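Take a careful look at the sequence and tokenised backbone pasted below. I need to know what the token row says about the fold.
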Amino acid sequence: MHPKLLGVLTIPALCLFAVAQETPTSRPSNQSSAAEAELQALLEKSVAFLNQRKMEESTDAARAALTFAETTFGESDERTVKTQLNLSTMLLLQGQLDEAEELAVKAHETSLGQLDHARSRVATSLKFLGNFYMQRGKLDEAQQVFEEAVELSSRAEGAEHPETAKHIGNLAAVHLKRKNIQQAEELFQQTLAIWAAQTEPHPVYTASAMTNLASLYLETGKQDEVRRLYSEAYQMQLDAFGPKSPRRLNLLRNYASTLDQLEEGERAAEIRAEISSIEGK
């Protein structure tokens, strides 16, 4: 898979980790809050290992989080479903497609059973199924489920909602993979417009939307636009996270690779020096 397309698909998935912040306020307070905090700590541990590229340790922590969620909240609880999808993402990144897909299908089936009041959750599980279709080269199936995810999210959250933007971005990735350049560009631009219109644009998702559009422009020879979008995304994350944050690594790695393709070796070396500094090398 094209490295930029992998970024399109996996960044949204990994940003599902803020489970505790998304739970309904109607749940019991003290005991539930303590359990959610424990789950959140396990998930954050997994993310920390992921940022260090310690994939085995990251996956082990994600498995521990899922076991805790299933035991504490039950298999049909939305926190468990999200934790299943997080583990699925870890396995996907390591190429363990069969187990990853099994988890995603299970989460999707659980969400379907709650469709009447959980359309947004079903859209999220469809996103994961689309990821697997993309990985396996089943582009017709991927396009179909991503279109369904956009429709469901638009009905549940609104056409201009950030959650809908995530699904539009995935649909754009399919069109880019299929060389449907005009459709992909329109969808990537739509995604970026939604994120940019937020009161406080999200430094991960907005930057991702910028670099996804840049990946398209790289293929179509619009090099000035590639430079502009990456420069803006770079500055956005630098301002938001600071120079030493591991949260910048995904963008920095893609930036360095893109600069190589633009034959800007000196700037690429500077970016790689930043990566080494963050990684402590």
The first helix runs from residue 3 to 14. The CA atoms of residues 11 and 208 lie 8 Å apart. The chain has 13 helices and no strands. Confidence is low (pLDDT under 50) at residues 1-28.
